[in-house]
Structure formats: structure tokens, C-alpha cells
Design goal:
The complex is a heterodimer of chains A (about 1000) and B (about 180). Chain A is α+β, with helices and mostly antiparallel strands and about 1000 residues long. Chain A contains 24 helices and 51 strands. Chain B has one domain: Gyrase A, domain 2 (2-Layer Sandwich). Helices cover about 20% and strands about 35% of the residues of chain B. Classes of the chains: A alpha+beta (about 1000), B alpha+beta (about 180). Chain A: GO terms for molecular function: sarcosine oxidase activity.
């Protein structure tokens, strides 16, 4: 069977360009320009899937994005297995491999179909009622079982290898939808030079002109006019045409999300090309030309393969040249389906009957159908269908006349009318208005700068559609861009009208399964039952029955469901309500939303100027915020413990070199710099001499420690402030916030200089000897440059700020040089250091050495509830200061009450035991659980220099407990500790002075 | 005395050239974060030899020196001859703050017919010539980081970012540039 349903002389595809593809392993041929759906239909294949709940055989309902049934998996390779692809939008490419879903063992024989026999059990609300109890069984038993039995495709199990992209764009006029309305709007809008973006979800612009055979615009057949218009627009520099691009979300301030599919239609895409691109468009004016969606008729067994929308059958015939059957019937309650009967008949397809629910349809289309020899059964209903894997018989009756007939067919086309696609309008927060006359929801009150034109605005005929498009485009361009526009006129003619038709169930839908929502297997009966069980609002009906909650978001079904509920409630439709339209309009991949932000580009990785050297010297890195910091430098055969022990020893015996470049730095400059510092820190600054440094503590308004760091005064009006690595951005924000809102009268400015300077810390007894040969213009003797001082001069011939500071308790310097010189200066220091037995050390050693000295790390030994006094830093509060941020917080009763947790040292009774950080501390280990916890360990290390473990902890009344023994209960034992001072090494603090 | 240390810019050796797009690290330059009230603008302008712009999104240039308006009291001053900008401002007694950020920032030159398009992969601003003309500059974002964007020609931009973000910025621009 090779494309036996392709009709010679029909459609727009070239018969010469054949493509091969497979569906469930079977090979087929199609044509370039086909969708998977049209290619399958060309081969007579209607059965493409099994339904979600009942596993009923399903075919292709539509020819577009609204498709609820024809969901397949597209498998390109091991990693590229896309589930739930609508066959109606997947373009065919050479070698395409498609598989059906939700069936076992095969599509034509599916054991899951037994669910269909148990259908009475699976009625509305079934899940809620049946799987209530026992609660634990939901997760372990019910949910996995339901997921296996009812479902869609299988998610791919490999990482997505494709690239995705993002573009921000701005335009005067954004037109969504490239049918007659959208093309007219874009044409008029771009006349004046306004910047226009026109997006359409299909491979080619043209919209419904694809199937509307009789349309004539500007004297040309509609489709031909559309393509010529596209060419005209493409030639204009102010127009960007985006095909295969769905406008899926309408957000605040005329920001729309568009997703452009770039490679899914290609047989072998360029690996560098992104698969999809997210467009985030900010438009001054938006023209919505999103068309309308045809609804099916709701009657018993309306879901058999071969039953499809009338407009879809026309699309397959008029565009793809495919007849959806050889002997078809049409079932409708409105006018536009007549054209389907005529189109098919003209191409030689037998139209067995046209069944119209209306008692006496009239008009030229009725005459034309009759004239074509097609029997019109007015006032008749389809009360059932037969055929296991494909419809083969339609049961027709007119009960009031006692007529019952069975008609043999291989396809049945249905149409109950058109639903304006108001999704984006509604997402824009525009209010929908219910049109009594036509029983439709239409755009009512706009809240953004948008306008809906054509079918999505409820317009039923082509001439008005084109006129609306032209005028809207013109107005949008004038308002957004200005300038004069030529008033365009286009003559458009078509005999067709897209009427509202009827919504709800057709007569006879009460018996059997008359599907409203195909994808979630919701029938008219389910909706009626929901109402009977007390659901009054459509929101409740929706959740109870799951109607409209599938991946198609109820594009074909929502209005039917609403109408049935309204009928049951005996209320007008608007009183029952309308469910909310939410983005995305059609499913959007996570890849498109993520865009470039994955792998290396997920988040910036910040490296210091010395990173490359550290890497080359075997450093193991740790992440500190976005920074990579050298953690330790293991030598051959060393584990972390050995490396850190060696580094710790070496620093105190000789010297160590440490990359401190990530420390936050802020330059505070201006005549009021000292006054500002007084306000931001607890310490006094006015009297700090130029060239001296001070350790500063910054509080939040509530009195708790926010950050700390050493600050050097470079001049009367200039401070070099350092912050913690992780605190750099928030400390600058905090300072800037206070400067702008609380202290705007101060003449001072803040500049981040974190990245201006590479910082090389040289710590240890030999530190001065190491740097001496490299320093120029600074006297670094202990007398001239004591601990806590700063000088400007040159190091290795480049400008430097040299700090005499210490976070180790040893004599220490921090060399600040402009960042690009960092590596070279480091190498020079390293070379000198080698002569004195120095080592490079990382953050772990830095942590241990500072803990030996009882220096806190904000965020480790503090947790946002620790005051300076709690941390033993009351000395850093300027006693005579009248104001600083947090001064009033410090006076709060609970902050001055006795019994607060205070930072102390802990020594384990067994010196070899290293406590766990975060472990809780109790006074009596034999008390009953839950025990009273009086504190916890904040820092804990093996100290090579002390020859034992050391720890810092926050303990209730800690300082008054020094000498006491406390206990740390662990899962397998209780560890006894002695409370000590926080200083474990060089208690007198002499070494820092050299 | 040791010989002067070698300068190693973070993007040393990086570049990308594609259809209609070229990415190149800018040569080292002197940079100043200059903060001052309106009243100091004339004195500072005179010392710097250019008219510090007062309008948002605008720049002023004089030879190799330029000043980019970043805020009501803030400019990024650049000098491609490596002039000692802090010393220039030190002669001005009018109230101001001048902080050397020559090494804090890294410049990336983005040029070609696709420059706008590539930048819009991560920058949400309208970069059309009408809205972001030659000479316009703005502190904005590119992907997840802050940048300063300066249009130096119809098809030429200069991106300034902090040193440690330059790998991210260059890589993001390169990813966008690779898509045709």
C-alpha cells in the first residue's frame, strides 16, 4: 500500500519528492511538505493511538495544534525520543521514526483496552472515590499502577543533547497568526515603516486559506495571495517573519513568549543549530489573529478512528492531496461542513450522506451539496457508530419521524461549529464577553495594547476578516510608530461562514460513550454525573471529571463541557463560568525555557587570577558561592587530612601563601567616608589613622552580626573595606541601601573593587622575608609597618596596596595588586617562598588556622541570631558611639537577657575525637529524650599545631561554663567535652607581631 | 628589584569569528568609576578633556578617552592609551569619588551585521539603531550577569563586565554567535 489515498491533481505537494518513514516499525512513503498525520492518512492509516484511560483505538481528529488524539513518540536516536508529539504538527522528514503510545502489546491489540469494559467503574471522580484509603497505598500502590495503566508517552531517560536558544526582541507591532487576518494586519502595519514581527505556528503562513478552497483575495486564490504576501513582507526590512513559531504566552506589559521550532522538521540537523528558540518579545501593540478551532459533534462512539473534523478533512485534501476515506459521511450542525462534502465529492470521494442536526438548513451551500447529488439528512442525528479499529458504519436516526438507518462509511467528518481561539487574549487578562446571539465567548474588554481580528474575534466571513486585519494593522502602526499610512484595500471573497454552531451534546449522547474530551477520555455522561453529584462551577466540574486538563487543554472540548454542564444546571453558559486560559497555549519544552542556561552557562563560574596556577599545582577546589576556591594542595600520596595537616604546620613553622582574591572589597570614598563607616559598623572609625586597619563588624537593624572584615584607611576620605567572600554583593547592597535611604545627606560613594585586586596572603614567621625582595617603596619592618596597617607602593614593579593583617595569628601580609598582574606576582612570591620553605595553602587550612585563634567566620560561627557579645566581640562596639545600624536592636530585652548562647571553645576529653559540626550539646547525657539542648558545635577540626581536635560552639551561658564538662550525644556514643576559651594556640597573641 | 610582573588578561587568546559576527577581547584600558554631583561635572569634564554626559544612555568621547553615563552621579571613564585617570581626577578639588577599576572590568568587542542579534540572546534591551544609537551606553544584563553595553558603531558594540564573569559573558555570546 503506497499512498493509495493520495489524489492526483489535488493538494500542493510535489509528487516527485517522496520521503520514507516508519510508524511502529512499518515502512511508509510520504511527500515533502507532509505532516506525519497527512502522510499516514495518505497510506490509509487512521489508527494511531490508544486513549488515556480506556485504551480505546483513536485516530487523527484534526489537522493542527488542537489535536487531542494523534499523539506519538518521535525517535531520532537513543537520547532524542520525544513523547506526545502531535502527528498533525510533526513535519515529515526522510527517515522519520514514529511509534504509538499507551498500548501493549500492540496498537491493534491492546490488553489495556479491558479498561473499556470496566468503564462504569472509571466514571467521573473515580480516582477520588476509590483510592482514598489507606493513605499510604496511594504512593506505593495506586499511583504507580494508575500511571502504568493510564498514560501518554514515556519520557526520555537520557540527558537532552540538543541546544536551545533565546532571543529578546522589541517591535512596534507583533502579529500572532499568519492567516488571512494576520497577513493583512502585518501588511498594513509594515506599510509605514513600523517594525513588525509576524509569527505563525505552521511551516508556511496562510492559516485557514490552506483548506478554504473558494477563497479569493485581491483577485487570486487565497493560498496564492498568502504566499505572495509573505514574499512582499519578507522583502521589507522592517518585518521579521517567524514560521514554526507558536505564541504560547501573553504576559504583563505586552511581553509575549514565542517558541520557534528550528530543527524538528529536518532529517539531519546541523549539530550546532539550536533545536528551538525562545523569543521574548516586547511589543508596543499586539494584533491577535489566532483564528478559530472547529469542534466535533458529541454523540455515542464519536471517537473511532476515521471520525475527524470537517476542516481537517479539507486540509488533508486541499493542501496535502489526501482523501481521508473513499466513502465518507458528514455530520454537522452548522454551515461550513458543507464545503467539506463538496470538496471531497469534487475529487471523486463518495459522500454517502450529509447529516445535519438542524431541521431545515437553508442556503446556497445546501443547494450546492444537493446539486452535487449528495443526500442531505436534515433533522437527523448520528446515534452510534461501529467498527473496531476504524469506523465502518454510522447509525442515523430521526426519532421524531421514526427513521433509523445505517450507512456504510470509512470516514465520518463532523463539525458542530467554531470556537474563537481567545487563549492569548484571555492570558493578557482581557475580559471575555459571552455573545448571546452566537453563544460564544469573544474578546470583550482589553487591558493591554492588543486587538483581536478575524475568526478569534468572532468574525465569520473572509471579507470582514481581511478588512479587520488591515484596519488593525494600520491603527497599531500609527499608534506605535506614527507617520502616515496608505489606506490599503483588499477585495476578499469566500462563500463560507464560520458560524458558532451548537455547543454541547447532540441528541442521543446520553447512551454509550459520547466523548467530550478525547485526550482525557471524558464523556457527556461524566459531565452530567459531576453536576448530579453537586458540582456547580465549571472549575469544579473540570477538576472532578478532568475535562480540559489534558495536554491539549481542551481546545476542542471545553465549550462542549461547559454547555452540557449549563444545560444540566439549567443556567446560561456565562453563569456556569469559564475555566482560566493559562500559558502555554501548546506544550513548550523545558529546553526552550532553559535556553542557553545549561552546563557551563547555567551559572557563571568565577575564577580568580591565580586559578590557573592553583590548577597546575594540583589544587582541589571547593565552590564558595559562584567562586572556585583552592581548598587544599595535596602532594603525591597525600589525602586531604595529610595535606591540610602539612599546610597548617608549614604556615606556623615557616610561611604559607594563600589566594584571598575572592574577599569582597568596597572602596568608600568621600569627605563623609568616616562618618558613613561609623554608621555602618559597630566600631569607631573617625580616629583611625591613615595607614592603619581595623577589624569591623556590621550588624543588621536587629542587632545581629551581618558581616565582618578588615578595613584599611588609605586617606582621610578613603577606606578600603573588605567583606566575606559570600557577603560581598549583599554587603554592598546593604550599604548602598542605607546610604540612599537613611543617610542621603552624606557625601560618600561606594565602589566595588573586589575584582580590581588580586589578593595574595603571605602568612607565617617568614612572611616578611619572603616579600621583602619584591616590595618597593614601603618600609615593612615591624616598627614602620606594625600589625593592622596598610601602605601603598609597588610589588614586583606594579602598584600595590600592602596590608599587614593576619587571619592566622602569624605575622602576615596581604598583597593587593591589579588583577591582571595577580598570577605573575603570585609566581614571584611563590619563588621567594620556596627559598624559605613556604607552601601554598587552601581554604581548609585557612579555616583551621583561624579556628586555632578563635577567629569567627560569619555564617559558620554565626547564624543570623548572634550578637557581637554572643560571639565574644563586644570589644568591637564603640562604647561612646551614639548611633550605628543595629544599635537599638542590641538593646532589645531578649538580646541583653542572661542565658544567651555564647561562643566558646570545646576540647574533647579524648583529644583524637573530632566533633561533628552541627552536633548538639547537653549538660546531662542521662536525661530523658527529648533532652534539653544547650548549644551546638559551629566549627570543628583536627588541629595539627595543637596536636588535638579543637572546636567552637555556641553554648548557653558559655563563657561562665569555662572549665565545665558537657556532652555531645551522637547516634552511637556520647562524647565528653571541656568548655574552654576560643583561643587554642598562642593564647597571648604574640606571634602576630613577629 | 624583580622585573615588572607580566599582565595576563582573563580572556587572553579567546576570539570567535562567524558569519556576520566577530567576538574579540578588548585590549587593556584604564578605567575609572567616577562619582560626583552635578555641581562637580564642569570641573571634572575640564580635567578629563571631555564633556561628562548628563543624559541617560549617553556617552562622550575624546580620542581614546570616553565617559559613559551610568547613573545621575556615575560615569564609567575609559582610556585606551592607559592614561593614569586617578591622577587626572586627583587634581580636581570639586567633590567627587574616583576609583580605579582598570582591572575589575574586561571589555569584549562584538561586531558585525549580527552583533545586535547575538547580544539580544542575553540582553533584553531594544538594541535597534533607533533606540540604541551609535554612542548609546547602558548598564544592563546579559544572561545572568551585569554588563555595561556601549554601541561604538552601527555594527559594533563594546561589552564591559567584571573580570571573573568574562568567561561566562564570552561563552554566552559565543553560543549565540554559533547559531546561524
Amino acid at each position: 500500500m503506497s499512498q493509495s489515498f493520495r489524489i492526483a491533481g489535488a493538494g500542493r505537494l510535489s509528487a516527485a519528492e517522496t520521503l520514507s518513514f516508519t510508524f511502529d516499525g512499518k515502512a511508509y512513503a510520504g511527500l515533502a511538505g507532509d505532516t506525519l498525520a497527512s502522510a499516514l492518512l495518505a497510506n490509509g492509516v487512521h489508527l494511531v493511538g490508544r486513549s488515556f484511560k480506556y485504551h480505546r483505538p483513536r485516530g487523527i481528529l484534526s489537522a493542527g495544534a488542537e489535536e487531542p488524539n494523534a499523539l506519538v513518540g518521535i525517535h531520532r536516536d537513543e537520547a532524542r525520543k520525544t513523547p506526545n508529539v502531535r502527528a498533525t504538527v510533526q513535519e515529515l522528514y526522510e527517515g522519520l521514526t514514529a511509534v504509538s503510545q499507551n498500548r501493549w502489546p500492540s496498537l491493534s491489540f491492546d490488553l489495556g483496552a479491558i479498561n473499556s469494559l470496566a468503564a462504569p467503574l472509571f466514571s467521573a471522580g473515580f480516582y477520588y472515590k476509590t483510592f482514598m484509603w489507606p493513605r499510604a497505598a496511594w504512593e506505593k500502590l495506586y499511583e504507580p499502577a494508575i500511571r502504568r495503566a493510564a498514560g501518554l508517552g514515556t519520557a526520555p531517560d537520557k540527558p537532552d543533547p540538543d541546544r536551545y536558544s533565546n532571543r529578546f526582541a522589541h517591535c512596534d507591532v507583533l502579529v500572532i497568526g499568519g492567516g488571512a487576518a494576520g497577513l493583512s494586519a502585518a501588511l498594513a502595519a509594515s506599510e509605514s515603516g513600523a517594525s513588525v514581527i509576524l509569527a505563525d505556528e505552521q511551516a508556511e503562513m496562510g492559516g485557514a486559506l490552506r483548506f478554504e478552497a473558494g477563497a479569493v483575495i485581491d483577485g487570486k486564490p487565497g493560498w496564492e495571495w498568502a504566499q505572495e504576501t509573505v514574499a512582499r513582507l519578507a522583502a521589507r526590512g522592517n518585518v521579521r517573519l517567524l514560521t514554526r513559531t507558536t505564541g504560547f504566552g501573553y504576559y504583563a506589559q505586552n511581553m509575549l513568549g514565542l517558541v520557534q521550532r528550528l530543527t524538528d522538521h529536518l532529517a539531519s540537523p546541523d549539530p550546532d543549530a539550536p533545536r528551538e528558540r525562545l523569543w521574548q518579545v516586547r511589543a508596543k501593540r499586539v494584533v491577535l489573529a489566532t483564528g478559530a478551532i472547529e469542534r466535533h459533534m458529541v454523540f455515542p462512539d464519536n471517537d473511532r478512528p476515521g471520525i475527524m473534523l470537517a476542516s481537517a478533512a479539507r486540509t488533508y485534501l486541499n493542501h496535502y492531496g489526501v482523501a481521508v476515506g473513499r466513502r465518507v459521511a458528514v455530520y454537522t450542525a452548522e454551515d461550513s461542513a458543507y464545503a467539506a462534502a463538496l470538496d471531497l465529492a469534487r475529487k471523486g470521494v463518495t459522500v454517502a450522506a450529509l447529516i445535519d442536526l438542524r431541521a431545515s438548513p437553508e442556503g446556497p451551500h445546501v443547494e450546492a451539496v444537493r446539486a452535487a447529488g449528495i443526500e442531505v439528512l436534515a433533522g437527523h442525528a448520528v446515534t452510534g457508530t461501529e467498527g473496531r479499529l476504524r469506523v465502518r458504519r454510522v447509525c442515523v436516526s430521526a426519532p421524531d419521524r421514526g427513521v433509523h438507518r445505517e450507512i456504510e462509511v470509512d470516514a465520518l467528518l463532523t463539525s458542530s461549529g467554531w470556537t474563537p481561539a481567545v487563549h492569548l487574549f484571555s492570558q493578557s487578562r482581557g475580559k471575555l464577553a459571552f455573545d448571546e446571539e452566537t453563544q460564544r465567548f469573544l474578546p470583550g474588554q482589553y487591558v493591554q495594547d492588543a486587538v483581536a481580528v478575524g475568526a478569534c474575534n468572532g468574525t465569520m466571513d473572509l471579507a470582514t476578516t481581511v478588512e479587520e486585519g488591515l484596519r488593525a494593522g494600520e491603527a497599531a502602526a500609527r499608534e506605535a510608530h506614527g507617520g502616515r499610512t496608505r489606506k490599503l484595500k483588499l477585495d476578499a471573497r469566500s462563500a463560507e461562514r464560520w458560524s458558532a454552531g451548537m455547543a454541547g451534546a447532540a441528541p442521543g449522547a446520553g447512551a454509550g460513550m459520547a466523548f467530550v474530551d478525547f485526550q482525557n477520555d471524558v464523556t457527556a455522561k461524566d459531565i452530567r454525573q459531576a453536576v448530579r453529584e453537586g458540582m456547580r462551577s465549571i472549575e469544579h466540574v473540570k477538576r472532578f471529571t478532568t475535562t480540559g486538563m489534558a495536554t491539549d487543554q481542551g481546545k476542542t472540548s471545553n465549550l462542549h463541557g461547559l454547555a452540557i454542564a449549563a444545560e444540566m444546571l439549567d443556567k446560561p453558559i456565562p453563569e456556569v463560568g469559564l475555566t482560566t486560559f493559562r500559558p502555554p497555549y501548546t506544550p513548550v519544552t523545558f529546553g526552550a525555557l532553559v535556553g542557553h542556561a545549561r552546563g557551563k552557562l547555567f551559572e557563571p563560574t568565577r575564577r580568580t587570577p591565580i586559578h590557573a596556577w592553583a590548577e597546575a599545582h594540583g589544587a582541589v577546589f571547593e565552590d564558595v558561592g559562584q567562586w572556585k576556591r583552592a581548598w587544599y594542595f595535596p602532594q603525591a600520596g597525600e589525602d586531604m587530612h595529610a595535606a591540610v595537616a602539612r599546610e597548617c604546620r608549614t604556615v606556623r613553622q615557616a610561611a604559607g601563601i594563600f589566594d584571598a582574591s575572592t574577599l569582597g572589597k568596597i572602596e568608600v570614598v568621600g569627605p563623609d567616608a568616616a562618618r558613613f563607616m561609623e554608621l555602618m559598623y559597630t566600631n569607631p572609625w573617625e580616629k583611625l589613622a591613615v595607614g592603619r586597619c581595623r577589624y569591623g563588624i556590621m550588624l543588621r537593624e536587629d542587632g545581629f552580626i551581618y558581616d565582618d572584615g578588615v578595613v584599611g584607611r588609605l586617606a582621610e576620605d578613603r577606606f578600603h573595606v573588605t567583606t566575606t567572600t559570600g557577603g560581598a554583593p549583599r554587603v554592598l547592597n546593604h550599604m548602598e541601601d542605607y546610604l540612599q535611604t537613611e543617610f542621603p545627606h552624606l557625601k560618600v560613594w561606594l565602589t566595588s573593587t573586589t575584582e580590581q585586586w588580586a589578593v595574595i596572603a603571605v602568612q607565617g614567621p617568614k612572611s616578611r622575608d619572603i616579600i621583602a625582595p619584591l616590595v618597593e617603596g614601603i618600609d615593612i619592618s615591624d616598627a614602620a609597618m606594625p600589625h593592622m596597617s596598610v601602605r601603598e607602593g609597588r610589588v614586583c614593579g606594579v602598584p600595590a596596596r600592602l596590608f599587614r593583617v593576619s587571619f592566622t595569628g602569624e605575622r602576615g601580609f596581604e598583597i593587593n595588586v591589579p588583577a591582571d598582574y595577580g598570577q605573575a606576582v603570585w609566581e614571584a612570591v611563590w619563588a621567594e617562598g620556596q627559598k624559605h620553605g613556604a607552601c601554598a595553602y587552601g581554604t581548609e587550612t585557612m579555616h583551621v588556622l583561624r579556628a586555632e585563634k578563635g577567629f569567627i567566620i560569619v555564617g559558620q560561627d554565626t547564624d543570623g541570631t548572634v550578637t557581637p557579645d554572643d560571639a565574644g566581640l563586644a570589644w568591637a562596639i564603640g562604647r561612646n558611639k551614639k548611633d550605628f545600624v543595629g544599635i537599638r536592636g542590641l538593646r532589645r530585652p531578649d538580646l541583653v537577657a542572661p542565658g544567651r548562647r555564647q561562643l566558646v571553645g570545646l576540647k574533647t576529653v579524648d583529644p583524637k575525637t573530632v566533633l561533628e559540626e552541627g552536633a548538639q550539646i547537653v549538660a546531662d547525657p542521662n536525661q530523658k529524650v527529648p533532652m534539653k539542648m544547650i548549644g551546638f558545635v559551629t566549627s570543628s577540626y583536627w588541629s595539627e599545631n595543637c596536636g588535638r581536635s579543637i572546636a567552637l560552639a555556641l553554648v548557653e551561658n558559655g563563657r561562665s561554663r569555662i572549665g565545665e564538662h558537657l556532652f555531645v550525644p551522637m547516634p552511637n556514643r556520647v562524647i565528653e567535652v571541656e568548655v574552654t576559651s576560643t583561643v587554642f594556640f598562642d593564647e597571648k597573641g604574640e606571634r602576630v607581631h613577629g | 628589584m624583580a622585573e615588572a610582573a607580566r599582565r595576563i588578561p582573563p580572556l587572553e587568546g579567546r576570539s570567535f569569528e562567524g558569519q556576520g559576527i566577530a567576538l574579540l577581547p578588548a585590549p587593556p584600558a584604564s578605567r575609572l568609576s567616577l562619582r560626583a554631583p552635578e555641581s562637580s561635572r564642569p570641573a571634572l569634564s575640564k580635567a578629563l578633556g571631555l564633556d561628562l554626559p548628563a543624559k541617560p544612555k549617553s556617552t562622550a568621547a575624546n580620542g581614546a578617552r570616553a565617559a559613559l553615563w551610568l547613573g545621575p552621579d556615575e560615569w564609567l571613564v575609559t582610556d585606551e592609551t592607559g592614561a593614569d585617570l586617578p591622577s587626572v581626577c586627583a587634581t580636581v578639588t570639586a567633590l567627587h569619588s574616583a576609583v580605579d577599576i582598570s582591572h575589575r572590568n574586561v571589555g569584549i568587542l562584538v561586531s558585525g551585521a549580527r552583533a545586535e542579534d547575538v547580544l539580544n540572546a542575553g540582553c533584553p534591551q531594544d538594541l535597534s539603531l533607533a533606540r540604541f544609537p551609535v554612542g548609546a551606553a547602558s548598564r544592563t544584563v546579559l544572561g545572568k550577569v551585569e554588563i555595561v553595553l556601549w554601541r561604538t558603531g552601527a555594527e559594533a558594540f563594546r561589552v564591559e563586565c567584571w573580570r571573573s564573569f568574562s568567561d561566562y559573558v564570552f561563552s554566552l555570546l559565543e553560543a549565540a554567535a554559533r547559531e546561524n
